[in-house]
Amino acid sequence: MANSASGHGHVHHWETSVAPLLIVGGVLFLVVFGFIGWFSYNSAMLAIVSAGIGTPLLLAGIAKWTGEALTHKPLVEGLSPIALPIFIVSEVFIFLSLFAAYWTMRLSAGPDWPPAGTPTNMNLRLPIIMTVILVASSLTYHVAEVKLEHNDRGGFITWVLISVVLGAVFLACTVYEYSHLMHMKFSPSTNAYSSIFYSITGFHASHVLVGLGAFLTVMLAAVKGLTNQYLAFCVGLYWHFVDIVWFFVASQVYYW
């Protein structure tokens, strides 16, 4: 950590970490190069090599970032007021690109939608249940933040744990749905709708998984007394973003 003093006598602390670089490198190899190798070049070797490089980098980055959260007292704000909104805006554009692909495909198909091979008896009640679960998890995390504001560390940990359980149930519903659809021979390669369906819902599920990891990190840090309200706020803001995106995912790919 390097310190720089301002002209008014204040000291600004700059925290640096190699963890984000490791995570970005891991995602680059695992997702980008791995997917390109498998889907574009049909090269199992390229996909395996990319996964072999990307997976250790990703795990090392996550482990280091988690370790830093558990061993260092976070600053009150740091660069988070700038970094988090930029990150969320970038994620919005990624989701918009996926939705734009779906809208183009859907509108150009006309009355021939959904394409042949799509199950006619898809469970449309499950997305509603999943929506209730995800909204409930946002509410429980809000309660956790309130507990933290009142210095109730035990209550904060309890309500974050409840949020983790709800998020895990949401992911379990996704796994159940995928398993059910695969059993009906509806895979990502079945038709155009299946490709975009698994892309959008899978991309959202990956964000839920990241959110659960953030919840666990904040909760474990709280157990050691190494958290603060702003850190909890940043994690909650990300989770609420994931919650809001789900409304668009459910309304578009399931009901339109």
What brief labels describe this structure?
single chain, 256 residues, mainly alpha, Four Helix Bundle (Hemerythrin (Met), subunit A), 2 domains, two-stranded antiparallel sheet, 7 helices, 2 strands, globular, disordered N terminus
Order of helices and strands: EEHHHHHHH
Radius of gyration: 21 Å
- Biggest sheet statistics: 2 strands, antiparallel
Q: Find the count of extended strands (DSSP E, 2+ residues).
A: 2
The low-confidence parts are 1-14
Shape: globular
**Helix content range of the residues, please?**
over 70%
Structure description:
The structure is a single chain. The chain is mainly α and about 260 residues long. It has 2 domains: about 1-70; about 80-255, Up-down Bundle (Four Helix Bundle (Hemerythrin (Met), subunit A)). Helix content is about 75%, strand content about 5%. The protein has helices spanning about 20-40, 45-70, 80-110, 125-150, 155-185, 190-225, 230-255; strands at about 1-5, 10-15. A hairpin with a 5-residue loop joins strand 1 and strand 2. Helix 4 (about 125-150) runs antiparallel to helix 5. The chain is globular, with a radius of gyration of 21 Å. The chain starts with a strand and ends with a helix. Mean pLDDT is about 85; it is low at about 1-15.
